[in-house]
Amino acid sequence: MQFTKLSAPTLKQLFVRELESMILSGRLPVGTQLPTEREMAASMQVSRAVVNAGVLELADKGFLLVKPRMGTFVADYRRDGTIETFLSIVNYNGGMLRQDEIRSILELRIALDTLAVELCATRITEAEISMLRVATEAIGSAKTDEEAVGHAFTFQHQLALFSGNTLLPILFSSFKSLTRTLWLRFCTLYGKAALYQNTDALCAKLEQRDFEGATLCLVDAIQNSIQGSKKIFY
Predict the structure, then answer these.
(1) What is the C-alpha to C-alpha distance for residues 227 and 90, in angstroms, rounded to an integer?
(2) Judging by beta carbons within 10 Å of its beta carbon (0-12, 13-18, 19+), is residue 159 exposed, middle or buried?
(3) Which of 33, 94, 156, 204 is the residue whose CA sits 20 to 30 A from 180?
(4) How far apart (Å, rounded) are the C-alpha atoms in residues 50 and 46?
(5) Are 23 and 15 in contact (CB under 8 A)?
(6) List of long-range contacts for 169-174, beta carbons under 8 Å, 24+ apart
(7) Are 157 and 172 in contact (CB under 8 A)?
(8) Averaged over 58-82, what is the pLDDT?
(9) Checking phi first, is residue 191 left (phi over 0); if not, alpha (psi -120 to 50) or beta?
(10) Residue 2 main-chain phi, psi, to 5 deg
(11) What's the pTM?
């Protein structure tokens, strides 16, 4: 049996994670000027080289703005962020984001999942629909919330894959950590049976090739998680 080699994060990675956490949690609001690199190095007990490299990486990710002869400031990452910013957001602290970020992620899910269903209307096969039914029933028979969430991810990832758009399954996979965390919270609040019911309703519409109805199922389920009867944040 072969095991994957383990490696500890470097000091620079720890520095970047800490600053990202402080920014995304709101402890460092947009526009805040950071202490000098010398002061941060002394405070965090790392070298100035670690701080300098970390600041440059965070600037590349869109979290910091370095102004020559003025200092380093927390950037408006929502306006000027990149795909690296996005990935940092969805992977932040196991999905423990602020409400506005969670709402934004769910709204983006509506757009992406709706696109997947629309593309499936002309591309999905009966065999692929059968695979979605298998994933759906696996949710219903799951013994634990964790297992149910795993099958729910399989369903949604397959739906993106069957759309025929090569980027959709990749984008959906980038949400994996956060999506699983939000679904686990949903199961904790409302039970895995509710997760099965949502997926079963969607799958039934796909089986009937009622793609407009499938889109409505998707939108209703996610909107309920945002502001309806099954909200997952308050």
Answers:
(1) 20
(2) buried
(3) 204
(4) 6
(5) no
(6) 171/112, 172/112, 174/86, 174/87, 174/90
(7) yes
(8) 90
(9) left
(10) -110, 135
(11) 0.70
